[in-house]
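Quiz preparation item.
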């Protein structure tokens, strides 16, 4: 009874205290919600050295937004400003020199930087690590600053096993395209020949045509000599054939008279 009487006597104060506690709890959850939204709506720019997927000796300077919102007014500062041995000087890389006005989430830029195996450049590049500092703003104009130390020695000993699937598919597609082109145009392989005569006659015809072409390239006197020899040989063979036919016919007639 005493507790109930006390609560009845102080219900105003109790309600006030409960209201204050509820406001604090609501405010705390609102703060957590704001932090969660802030985390989920923040650009995140990363800078790295990335070997080419198929040719790992070719290294590119890569910038990528892995965050969930766009970055604005992206600027880059390199330290040192000059890296000896690279094929493309830092000050000539477009996004380092000019910055990026708007960099949407998921976007990636790769700029060829150096061929590390040319003239033993890797050993020289390993001696000069450098740092890229990137500054940018998010959608509410809040500033961000990130620094990325880059070192070529991290990729030393890197090897590639096989080719990436996309490159395999691309090469196979090119070969299929080439085969289809050859098939439709008839280039790259022998066209099929439909014979209307026996194979023996076809081969003899090809041989005769080949001899005719060879004879045509000889001097006129040589052509006349060869043609004369051919005529003599043909006449001789014709006589031999007629004689064999006459002998066979005579033998057949003799056998018939004997019967």
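Solution:
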């Amino acid at each position: 009874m005493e507790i109930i009487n006390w609560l009845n006597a102080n219900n105003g104060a109790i309600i006030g205290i409960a209201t204050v506690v509820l406001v604090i709890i609501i405010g705390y959850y609102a703060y957590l919600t704001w932090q969660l939204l802030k985390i989920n709506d923040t650009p995140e720019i990363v800078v790295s050295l990335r070997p080419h997927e198929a040719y790992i000796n070719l290294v590119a300077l890569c910038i990528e937004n892995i965050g969930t919102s766009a970055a604005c007014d992206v600027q880059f500062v390199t330290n040192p400003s000059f890296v000896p041995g690279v094929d493309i000087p830092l000050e000539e890389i477009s996004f380092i020199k000019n910055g990026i006005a708007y960099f949407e989430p998921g976007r990636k830029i790769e700029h060829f930087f150096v061929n590390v195996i040319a003239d033993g450049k890797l050993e020289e590049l390993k001696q000069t690590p450098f740092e890229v500092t990137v500054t940018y703003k998010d959608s509410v104009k809040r500033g961000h600053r990130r620094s990325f130390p880059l070192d070529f020695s991290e990729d030393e000993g890197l090897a590639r096993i096989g080719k990436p699937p996309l490159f395999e598919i691309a090469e196979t597609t090119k070969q299929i395209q080439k085969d289809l082109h050859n098939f439709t145009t008839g280039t790259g392989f022998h066209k099929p020949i439909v014979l209307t005569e026996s194979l023996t006659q076809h081969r003899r015809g090809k041989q005769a045509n080949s001899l005719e072409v060879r004879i045509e390239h000889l001097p006129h006197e040589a052509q006349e000599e060869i043609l004369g020899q051919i005529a003599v040989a043909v006449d001789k063979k014709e006589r031999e054939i007629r004689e064999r036919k006459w002998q066979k016919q005579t033998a057949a007639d003799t056998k018939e008279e004997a019967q």
